[in-house]
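FAQ: What does the model actually see?

It sees only this:
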Amino acid sequence: MKPFKIVFSNLSVIILLCLSIVTSAHNIKTEKGNTKLPAFDIVQASIEASDNWLTFTMQVSKKAGKSKPTPTGKLEGSEVFSYVWPTQIDSSAVGFDEEQGILAMAITSHPDFDDTPLFDENADGDLGNDGTVWHSHWVVLVPDNACGEGALKVKDIPEGTSPKLPLTWPGLPILIDSPGYSPIINKKHVSVRVPFRNAKELKGIAFDGVTSGLRVNESAHAPLLCVVDVFDVASGDLSLPGKVQ
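And it is asked to produce this:
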């Protein structure tokens, strides 16, 4: 895993990593070998817009989706593995208040808790035991040194406040949505197709691709969910060089 340090200015991000990358006009392409974890070794990341749909795609070296966190038996201190597309789409576009942070689509797995209470991903009739199955979220990311110097977290909802939230917000005190869009994971590819009104208007919007590990706070209080490991970054510096096609 790479050391991870970020310097923020107006929510712009510089990650102090040295990676060899090639960025096309729209997709982000990079060489293999930026992490020893092939399931999280990004080769290419893209977002495509068509009519009222956005399609998020990430290609890795091999074994996409095969690596999942080791169960701990409790929520506190448990891990989350994720494939993430940070974007410059405003947070209000998916049901949060405006300008809350970095809106990202994330495909996650976490065996110790279930944060999709409306959906039965493993089709066993139990809505509360599906966390290990790869599933989708919209999340809002912001910096918080309480997670480590320069680290990101999923934005917490302060106690006593009533922010605007999507209808499929799962009830956690963070800016997260559980809309139930099913990802497709096959060999080297992770993708998810998301309904999005007037998606074509997003063409040219900037994005990046990240694979990462997050951890639930040991006290289960704010900051609740911190980014603790960055496995790979498609651009190398989280400069969001990709453009929605």
